[in-house]
Recover the amino acids of this structure.
């Protein structure tokens, strides 16, 4: 059974600092990995999707890397802003279903 | 175009009652998924439909839970004899295809509270 772990569980940084969020998974036989953002009481917003053949994906201030062989992904958020405060979830897809981590809750202090 | 929609957005019910949660996937998406998210945790897989049939229902916690997708589009998750432990956010997602690297698109969820 796929196990997904996110460290740290919570993170608080001052505005402008770069954020580094980690995700690890136990079974490397995945099709892709997705990073999501979730605001309190809201649904999931997809941020980046990395196919298993890719090493990284970038969108604006966000960059995600994938090392499938070691079972790790990292989400980098450059120059954080208070609006980046949210919970960030990573999910790996094996065949058809997604297995999620518990998330990292980020607070960016103004 | 329209995304995945779910109704109701919130549902409060008494212990022992029956509830139905509805999901409208993105038009043309053949695959549909239900997940459940408990407080402070990531979503957990419940069931996967490819077309009208449930290809994998291994995530349903027990036989009080059942889901249908009779015409290969809208899906309904049904919970009988609800228990307080069923309180969670129920998320629906759809994708163009099932197996493989297709991206899943999520709806806003239904928050179920069992009192």
């Amino acid at each position: 059974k796929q196990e997904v772990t996110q460290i740290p569980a919570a993170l608080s940084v001052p505005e402008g600092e770069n954020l580094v969020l980690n995700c690890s998974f136990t079974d490397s036989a995945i099709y892709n990995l997705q990073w999501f953002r979730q605001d309190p009481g809201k649904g999931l917003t997809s941020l980046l999707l990395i196919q298993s053949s890719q090493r990284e994906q970038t969108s604006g201030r966000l960059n995600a890397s994938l090392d499938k062989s070691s079972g790790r992904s990292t989400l980098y958020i450059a120059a954080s802003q208070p609006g980046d405060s949210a919970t960030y979830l990573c999910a790996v897809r094996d065949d058809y279903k997604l297995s999620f981590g518990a998330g990292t809750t980020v607070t960016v202090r103004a | 175009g329209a995304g995945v929609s779910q109704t109701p957005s919130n549902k409060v019910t008494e212990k022992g009652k029956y509830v139905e949660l509805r999901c409208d996937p993105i038009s043309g998406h053949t695959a549909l998924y239900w997940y459940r998210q408990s407080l402070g945790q990531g979503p957990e897989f419940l069931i996967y439909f490819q077309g009208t049939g449930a290809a994998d229902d291994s995530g349903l916690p027990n036989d009080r839970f059942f889901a249908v997708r009779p015409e290969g589009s809208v899906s309904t998750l049904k919970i009988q004899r609800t228990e307080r432990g069923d309180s969670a956010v129920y998320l629906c997602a759809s994708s163009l295809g099932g197996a493989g690297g297709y991206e899943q698109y999520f709806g806003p969820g239904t928050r179920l509270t069992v009192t």
Chain A has no helices and eleven strands. Chain A touches chain B at residues 4, 31-32, 34, 36, 41-44, 46, 49, 51-52, 89, 91, 93, 95-103 (CB under 8 Å). The longest strand of chain A covers residues 86-94. The two ends of chain A are 41 Å apart (CA to CA).
